Amino acid sequence: MPALDSRNQTDQATKAREALEQAVDCREPISLEEVVSEAALQTRVDKKFLLAPQQFTALSERLGEKFKVMQIDGLRTFRYESVYFDTEDFDQYRAHRQGRRRRYKVRSRTYADTGLSMFEIKTKGLRGATVKHRIQQDLHRSGELTEENLQFLESVLLSEYGQGVPELQPVLDSSYTRATFVNPIDSERLTCDVELGYANSKTHINGPDLIVVETKSADGRGAADRALAELGIREVSMSKYCIGVALLNPHLPANRWSRLLQQNFVPDPSLS
To answer: Residue 133 CA to chain centroid, in angstroms?
Structure first.
C-alpha cells in the first residue's frame, strides 16, 4: 500500500490542529515512562466523541490541571501510522458492524516520530471492555504478518476465543496526529486525533477538520467523560478502522455509521 502523505491533511485540518496544539502547550508534561507505569490501561472502557475545534477548546478548559500531556523528546503531538489486516471478505469489519461479541482487530502501528513499531490485537473482554495485546516488531517489517506476529496472534485468538487464525491480508493504511492527555491519579487517558487519512492500493481519502476524542478509563465514567457530558457532547459509534474501510469500499454495508459518514466524512475526489 502507498504511504500516506500528511501534507494535504495538514492543509485541510488547520483549525483542528491549532486547537490541539493550543491545548497541549499549556499543560504540564508527563513522560512516556510515567504513562506506562502510572496509567497503563490495557483493559479499559473506551468511548469516542467527534468534536469541532471550538468544542475541543471548551473541553480542554473544563478538564483543568489534573490532566497532563505526554511528552517525548520535547514533542507533544505525534504521527501515528497503522496497517490493518482483515480477510479478503472483510470478516472482522462485518463482525464489528454486526456488533458480535467475539470480534477483534489486527493491526501494525508505527509511531513515526520515535521509530517504535508494535503489532497489536484488540479484543473484547467482559462487559464490552477493550483488551489490547501487543508486541514490539521490526520497524522495517511493520506492514507484514511475520511468523512471530502470526504466532502471537494465534496464541491470543486461541486464549480469548478458542479460534484459529484466518487468512489475513493488509486492507487499510491509516494515519493521524495524536496528543495524549493523562490523569495519573486514576489512570485515565484522553487521546485526541486530528488529520485523519485513509488509503488502500487505489484511493487516498482525508478525514474532516474535526478532533476524534477517545476517553479510556476503568469504568467509562472518568473525569473527561463527565466533562463531555456537561458540555452536551454525546458519544458516537465510531471505529477509525471501520470508517476507513467503509469510505474506501463503498460496496460494503455500512448502515451502522451511515449518518456519521454522510455528515462528517465526505471524500474529496481530488485526493483519489
So the answer is: 15
